[in-house]
Amino acid sequence: MIKRRKTRAVYVGNVKIGDDAPIVVQSMTDTKTHDIEATLSQIYRLSKAGCEIIRVAVPTEKDAEALPEITKNSPIPVIADIHFSPRIAFKALESGISGIRLNPGNINDKGKIKEIIEECKKRNIAIRIGVNSGSLEERLLQKYGYPSAEALAESALYWSEFFESVGFYNFKVSIKGSDVLQNIEANKIFAEKTDIPLHIGITEAGPAGRGSIKSAVGIGILLYLGIGDTIRVSLTADPEEEIETAYNILQSLGLRRKGIEIISCPTCGRIEVNLPDIVYKVEQSLKGKDLPIKVAIMGCVVNAIGEAKEADIGLACGNKSAILFKKGEPIRRVLEEDMVKELLKEIEEMEKNGE
Ligand code: SF4
Predict the structure, then answer these.
(1) What's the CATH number for 261-352?
(2) Which Gene3D superfamilies match (predicted)?
(3) 316 Cβ inside 6 Å of ligand 1
(4) C-alpha of residue 190 to centroid of ligand 1, in Å
(5) Residue 84 to residues 106, 114, 256: CA-CA distances in angstroms?
């Protein structure tokens, strides 16, 4: 069981991050924010998939102008990503958003940053302080010679202290290193020194396949160390895939559960059915269902029931038929063409009976 680092609570709208809150899953839209219809439609899809906080890019005034309509209709709190421009930040702050992400190192004007903080305080808006190698202050680059993990952590601590010195505490921090190991190291250094909640993720992780693995390793190690209060998986893919991967990471570590867990064997020379096809069909049919059960789909009867005995229900496939089993006990034999249908019927029964 993972012991999570003790952090203080931060609120983004009505979503609690840190303290005893579950690790919050977030993502970012990839639509043009000024296209209100497209942005809201993506937010609804992501929210349905399990996204709990959504970030939207606000690079232009036109995007900032779209925010009131988006925040009014969004089912989840909206964070505006304002990056470089304090002018756009002020416009965004008036729009009903729940949070902003800013890299103080990019703005690098304490007077302006203080004005933004005061506005957030007044409007109860959370801030995510972003620190990455590209936004590192010159003095730290000179001190460390390059954007090392120590330099990134020191920058994050510096800005956190600055925010607290002006009486602002509703913030979390994200530190993004250029590679997985640096990322882990920088977050570890920061986590040892404060109780400020951390947003973790591997930035620019890559396309869905590689990116999910890189994220699982980087985010997974930090989570295993108890570090991380909210996560975002960044993939060059549909953001819905980010949500799925995020929950898979959390589920693998026993930190959160979503959907229905499916386990299946890797197949071997004993296989007599098209297992990938069966697993695909079951997975697609169960998409969107959220039940605390484990479904096993195994390629043969030799080891299946024994190997999958922790599953709540499953199929042990054989030649032209399969044994349907429940809690490690066979319940009946089903024909190949009925396997998927029978398994789904049984799961539906379990759902009805609250099993
Ligand atoms: S369950 Fe059967 S088919 Fe699947 S990997 Fe194990 S032995 Fe092979």
Answers:
(1) 3.30.413.10
(2) Dihydropteroate synthase-like, Sulfite Reductase Hemoprotein, domain 1
(3) no
(4) 45
(5) 6, 15, 35
What is the fold, at CATH topology level, of the domain defined by 10-252?
A: TIM Barrel (3.20.20)
| Domain boundaries defined on the chain | 10-252, 261-352
Residue reference for tokens 């999570």: 4
Could you list the residues known to form a binding site for [4Fe-4S] cluster, using ranges: 265, 268, 300, 307
Ligand 1 atom 8: the closest Cα is on which residue? 268
Interval 282-295 mean pLDDT = 90
Indicate if ligand 1 lies below 6 Å from the C-beta of 203. no
Give the model confidence (pLDDT) of 314-344 as tens digits.
999 988 889 999 988 889 999 989 999 999 9
300 lines ligand 1 (CB under 6 A): yes
Alpha-carbon torsion, ordered 298, 302, 303, 308, to 10 deg: 40
| pLDDT tens digits, one per residue of 121-160 | 999 999 999 999 888 888 999 999 988 999 999 999 999 9
Nearest one of 133, 131, 120 to 12, comparing CA atoms: 120
